């Protein structure tokens, strides 16, 4: 059992609150991704779990053990670093076997486990080489092999793919996900790449300013962001946000001059906020662009058309607001054209204009 | 494009080589002349013009020098002082350098300036208080006292050099070792130390050469147990010229030999790999 429980963790650097009063429970064998922009405290939190930073407050439990005051090596964790931190003065074999040697395992067992781990990562040909003779991708594999060779109950990963080039990152992402599925360890994975987070995690914890904004499954995070920030941070392109005015006691909303009908259940929720204007969030794939006017559509003006193969990405203007819309790849909508947008009503997310929080 | 730059690049490269050759000659010619003179029979030392390659090889001069009063004994003293200085300055200086490199503590900047400021006082000014202090402690005329003073002189640079060496070893390497089961000390010994060996070697050379050449402190603090430079400095004026050359050669050699063995680490420090 290696459940991680984090209770009220605080960490400050001088006057900066890197992590502030954070609670998180990672289930045994769960894959949790800490996601956020740089400086949000995600790496600091990971280092607190590892014991590389001392916390200023709160407790951390791994399994049943309170590890808050334990040394790094007593925590039964393994870690993959962003810079890989492969030891340059040891060959690949000694790098992977380092943790095993520290456990004073018998030599044949070390050899066996190094060999097995190397095969898992397809680097068994490289065991005699030194890190300087390896490519970035190979070094990355050594770093992962070294961490999983010790078979720790908790695996911590600090942006392990961020130093790889785009193609290699894509390949390694799938391979790493497959590998970690097989290993059945508890994983905490830090990244600022939202695609990585969506594709790999069982759950994503979105961080900003040293706090969690939302902890949910990837699809929930993508589809039901609890905060405007999350919507605008996750997804490519990010969620569109339009200002809507509540009209006729919530019977419909008005965007610029266009009135859009809303369901009675949504109307109740919106009315309950007591606000006149709200944010209306919708993703680009939930908007249908049309070249003729129809009832209940928003007029817009196309600025840019980007053919992306699987679809065309339109950048259009609604009043003063810019909106991104997905269009069919064989559509004949061109720049500088007037179009009408039909929004899929049930995919619209409503957010408070002042706090940015979702209205539920 | 690259072709038009070729002549100027060639000239630049030629200039670099020329400068390097001049510098090397500047250092090697005196060494060569001293070496040749040290192995020339005493009666031939005044011959002129000199042969470029000596025809007669003789250990006569060297034997005369080594047989001279106190020379071997002071040579032994010099070796002992240099070794103690190197060992002590590294064992005291490297941990201090590590602390400067890795930890943020109150007064860190003041500390690093304070380290250097000990070198602001010339030993000449301190000579009488030093001699008096060592006499009071009953440590006057001892090889160990000279070594202590050399350590004090070498420590500031040792601390600052080693701290920059440790800064060059990524902190994540050390942390990786700790996540793999090392205590902090084990992480330093198994990962940081092997990687900083070239830098530490450079720092050791510096201390060795400083101690080997140091005359003033050695002269003040000793009377009978002199180091080689301290012995030579008083004898050289009254000695025959053969003795001077032999002495010069003898004091040169250990530094050259020491450099030769430690050269590998220096090269890696400068980013040159020998294969």
**End-to-end separation of chain B:** 34 Å
The CATH class designation of the largest domain in chain B is: Mainly Alpha
The helix/strand class of chain B is mainly alpha
Outline type of chain A = elongated
Assembly type of the shown chains? heterodimer
* CATH architecture grouping of the largest domain in chain A: 3-Layer(aba) Sandwich
Most extensive chain interface and residues per partner: A-B, 23 and 16 residues
Helix fraction of chain A, binned, reads 25-40%
> Sheet bearing the most strands of chain B, described?
none
Structural class of chain A: alpha+beta
Give average pLDDT of chain B, whole number.
84
Task: Provide a descriptive summary of the structure in words.
The complex is a heterodimer of chains A (360) and B (275). Chain A is α+β, with helices and mostly antiparallel strands and 360 residues long. Chain A folds into 2 domains: 230 residues, P-loop containing nucleotide triphosphate hydrolases (Rossmann fold); 113 residues, OB fold (Dihydrolipoamide Acetyltransferase, E2P) (Beta Barrel). Chain A contains 9 helices and 20 strands. In chain A, the strands form 4 sheets. In chain A, strands 6-7-8-3-9-10 form a 6-stranded mixed β-sheet, with helices on both faces. The mean pLDDT of chain A is 92. By secondary structure, chain B is an all-alpha fold. Chain B has 2 domains: 92 residues, no CATH class; 161 residues, MetI-like (MetI-like fold). In chain B, 76% of the residues lie in helices and 0% in strands. Chain B contains 11 helices and no strands. Chain B is globular and about 70 Å long. Chain B starts with a helix and ends in a 6-residue tail after the last helix. The C terminus of chain B is likely disordered. The chains are: A alpha+beta (360), B mainly alpha (275). At the A-B interface, strand 6 and helix 2 of A face helix 7 and helix 8 of B.
